[in-house]
Amino acid sequence: MDDSADEYPGATTVGDFRANVARVRARIDAAAERAGRDPAAVRLLPVSKTVPADRVRLAVEAGCRRLGENKVQEAKRKSAELADVDVAWSLIGHLQTNKAKDVVVFADEFQALDSLRVAEALDRRLQAAGRSLDVLVQVNTSAEEQKYGLDPDAVSGFLRELPRFETLRVRGLMTLALFTTDTARVRRCFQTLRETRNRARDTDPDLIGPGELSMGMSGDFEVAVEEGATCVRVGQAIFGARATPDSHYWPDSTTGR
C-alpha cells in the first residue's frame, strides 16, 4: 500500500484518465468476484481533492460524472468552475455547521454525517432551498481519537433521530479504515462497518435506507470490496499521486501506508 508516484501514475490527458479508471474498475470487479459478489453492486467514486479544476475537467470528459471532495470550500469553488459540465458532487469530509449553507448549493450527497447539530443545520438550509440530500452516517471503526465518526454502538440511536430531518435521505454508512500496512487490521475496520449496518437493519431496516457501505480508498479498496463495500472512494489511483501524502490527513497516526 505504497502512495508512490510509481504506483499511482499521473493523469494529464483524457486517455490517461480513461486508462486509470479502467484499471481501478478491473480491480474492483476482480475483488467482487473473489468475494462472490456482483461487481455492478460496487460504485466507484473518484476523489478529486487537491486536483485543479482543469485536470478535473479532463476526468469528467473521460466519464467521471460524480466526484468526491473532502473540503467544502474547495468543492464549492470547483463546482462553480465546472458549472458548465455534467458532474455531481459528493462531500466526503467533515462538515462544520456554519458550512451547511454552502453544501446545499453544490452537493448531491454527503457521506460524513456524524452530528445531530449538522443534520439540523443541513435540514434547515435544505428546506429553505426546497430540496433534499442523500447522506451516509460516518462511523469511527478504528477507535482512533483523532478521527471523526460515531462509535459503532452509537449508530442505532443516531439513526433513530434522523427521520425528523425530512430533507435528509439516509443511504447507509461510511468509514475510514486504519492507516496501516497491516491488512488484517484494515479488514477488521471494514468488517465492523458491515456488522454495524447489519445490526441496524435487524433493529429497524427503514432507518438505514438501502444500507450502502462507503469504505475503501486507493490503498485498500480491494479489501473493502471483499468485505462488502458498495462505494469505494478512490483518488490517487485515478488522478495520480498527490504532492501531499495521505499521512497528512491522519496527523496523529503512528503508522503509515
UniProtKB/TrEMBL annotation:
The keyword Methyltransferase does not apply. Keywords: Pyridoxal phosphate. The modification N6-(pyridoxal phosphate)lysine is found at residue 49. The keyword Transcription regulation does not apply. It holds the Pfam family Ala_racemase_N. Residues 21-242 form the Alanine racemase N-terminal domain. InterPro entries: Ala_racemase_N (IPR001608), PLP-binding_barrel (IPR029066), PyrdxlP_homeostasis (IPR011078). Belongs to the pyridoxal phosphate-binding protein YggS/PROSC family. HAMAP family: PLP_homeostasis. Pyridoxal 5'-phosphate (PLP)-binding protein, which is involved in PLP homeostasis. This is Pyridoxal phosphate homeostasis protein.
